[in-house]
Here is the input.
Amino acid sequence: MCEQQAVPEFLNILVVCTGNSCRSPLAAAMLRHELAGFPVRVESAGTAAVTGGSASPSAQQVAAEMGLELGGHRAKTVDPGLLEWADLILVMERRHSDWISRLAPEAVHKVKFLAGYPDQEVEIPDPMGQDIIFYRQIALLMKAGVLRVARDIRKKLQKGVN
Here is the structure.
């Protein structure tokens, strides 16, 4: 799924949060939907994920409300290989960016904040433990960022720029 390939026509996007059970799987599903038909691969991972864990029930509910599916999601932890694989790394919070810079300083130039894409550091709070209304609010904040990312990527890919 995330094997490294020298296939220049694909753009690899990694979406990062903390536990890889709420924000990053939902944002990744949104990106896959928005970029369907484009040569883009989207993965998600967490800085403190419990490997193999599923998406939270609330994240799955919000995804279903948006016409997306998270039932098959299995959490994984960010590792140097994923950071190398990614052409673009989208984070939710400053601590995720800081964590990546400590793990792989060479990947820092690929990091962008999803909510502030492309050039602002706008954080998306962790909804874990919050009610479904908070999850929906976070999903809308992520959706706005996803739409900006998708528009930018479609434009670049249509021009033949990776």
Summary: Residues 11-159 form a domain with the Rossmann fold fold (CATH 3.40.50.2300).
